Amino acid sequence: MNTINYNEFMKNAIIAHSDMTMNYHNALEFFILHRGTHKGQMDMVTYYNKEKFLLFSAGFLQADKNDNYFFEYAPKRDCDIMDNIEIRPVNDKIKITYYIGGQQYDPQVVKEFIIVASPYHEFKIRITFLEKPTENCEFVIHSRNYIMEPELRKKLMVSRLITDSNIYYQGMCIKN
Hints:
The structure is a single chain. This protein has helices spanning 6-12, 24-34, 150-158; strands at 3-5, 15-17, 44-55, 62-63, 69-73, 81-88, 94-100, 103-105, 112-114, 123-129, 137-148, 160-162, 166-169, 172-175. By secondary structure, it is an alpha+beta fold. It has one domain. Helix 2 (24-34) links the parallel strand 2 (15-17) and strand 3 (44-55).
């Protein structure tokens, strides 16, 4: 089995960004239209994604063992890689945690989630409210998403992929 260092892989990839793209379908269209016109062979295209949430009442939220309310969001798996995940507005009364395959991760440590290399693990973003949220609490989850060239996608799917924080292997993501 081939082993790939994620940082080296990304450093060597030819990546184009589309500011006009806001979803998977537009990114795929951009990739197909511009693949041959981009200098060199384009390996991936990135686009910024945002999901807006409005909480009408804390009654819709779950509570953890400390009686803090939380909201869990499982991003759509319609891209190959997600990184630069942020919650806005930035608020010191919330705590962000990632759950990958049921294991808890610190977002300061895990910088990306490689969807294509972990089809068997669910990725959730948990927003814990350290104070009871107000009615009509609004926040937006931002991310940079990647769409890859099919051969590279296949390469990541069948390889052992090592990131700074995780190892992706046989469709699973485990702590490094």
